[in-house]
What we know:
Elements: E1 6-9, E2 21-25, H1 32-43, E3 47-53, E4 61-63, E5 73-75, E6 77-82, E7 87-92, H2 98-114, E8 119-123, E9 126-127, E10 141-145, H3 153-158, E11 166-168, E12 174-176, H4 184-190, E13 195-202, H5 208-222
Parallel strand pairs: 2-7, 2-8, 8-13, 9-13
Antiparallel strand pairs: 1-3, 3-6, 4-5, 6-7, 10-13, 11-12
Keywords: Chaperone, Proteasome
Pfam family, one: PAC2
Protein name: Proteasome assembly chaperone 2
Amino acid sequence: MSDKLVIKKLVNPWPDVKGYTFILPSVCVGNVGQLAMDLLISTLETVKIGILHHPALLPIVGYDPYNNKSTEISTAADLHLCKDKKVVLLQIRSPLIKVEKESFLKELSSWVSDCAFRSAIVLSSSHAQLRFDAQMIGSQFRYICNEFQHPDIDRLREVGGIEMEEREDDCGVKKRRLPGGGFALKFLTLSKIPTIVLTKFVDEGDNTNDALSVVSFLNNWAQYLESPKWKKPFSWKNLFGAPP
């Protein structure tokens, strides 16, 4: 792994995450993936364990978005751990710089592989206006998996998971596309472990309800909580600024 990706460890000893699931958002249309990560981090009993640094990440710093009494800060990329559910969550808060994006995704996928995660899940979304006729009705959720057999793929299909349909490109080649999905497909192809992109067709606007439906679908599949009551972080009060 290149020295470009640096992980600042905030806990000692560093947890052994072998066999855990790694979940991350793609910076996508409506920021649905990032909003969904907010809900997971707020609702599951998570501990912040690290900060990621890389030239691809536009640097940001702010208050703790999950606890208004905390003195902790938030950055462009924070790592959280839920030991009880064996999940590591990466929240990404800034877009990736284009010239460094591939380097970041390659190094991140190498780190994920080195950690011996059981699998990875990318939360994303796609432009609803670019659906074709067969996608206009029924479930608005789709998944795309990489070449490695995901251990829970059968369970995903049992709860209504539909694989993203193939489309022909301008050259007549059929492939699965994710317009508006950010870096999700790129990470999928680079990942060296079983990885699934979970996406929803959305329109851009107030996408908090889309995020709620994404985490509900994810939980129905992964069964992290029996009867979840998703906790909205207090920072969501400022999503659209003050009233006019």
